[in-house]
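[recover] target loaded
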């Protein structure tokens, strides 16, 4: 594998561009693997993964947790529900709000995909020592905290 030709487009001091490129490289590979092995889109996987991690939640909570827009959540949820992987029910505390949860089949698929994703990320990070991975995580968190949101 080679770095994209544009990796050095703005020089090494433009970290956001490199982070964006890396994220897109990971997304492309993830999308390929999800589609070929599980028949899922990246958006479907994100909705399923976030809903599983959060527990019963609303589409709004999924959007906030994953930085995903409502239309993408809606499309992904419809496909997941049609496949029997997710369901929604009215929230008894809020008349207009729907609570989204994975079905038992969705939870089983989530476990399978998570194993594959862990293996993929293990491969991606295999060139880094455990201490380097811990340092990288610490540095990313420090950068994120430095941004005023």
């Amino acid at each position: 594998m080679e770095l994209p030709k544009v990796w050095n487009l703005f020089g090494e001091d433009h970290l956001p561009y490199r982070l964006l490129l890396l994220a897109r490289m990971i997304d492309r590979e993830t999308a390929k693997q999800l589609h070929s092995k599980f028949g899922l889109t990246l958006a479907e996987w994100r909705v399923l993964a976030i809903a599983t991690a959060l527990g019963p939640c609303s589409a709004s909570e999924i959007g906030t947790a994953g930085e995903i827009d409502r239309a993408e959540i809606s499309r992904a949820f419809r496909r997941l529900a049609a496949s029997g992987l997710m369901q929604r029910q009215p929230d008894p505390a809020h008349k207009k709000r729907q609570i989204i949860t994975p079905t038992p089949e969705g939870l089983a698929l989530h476990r399978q995909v998570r194993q594959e994703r862990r293996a993929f990320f293990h491969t991606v990070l295999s060139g880094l020592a455990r201490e380097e991975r811990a340092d990288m995580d610490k540095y990313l968190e420090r950068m994120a905290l430095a941004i005023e949101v």
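[recover] notes: The two ends are 35 Å apart (CA to CA).
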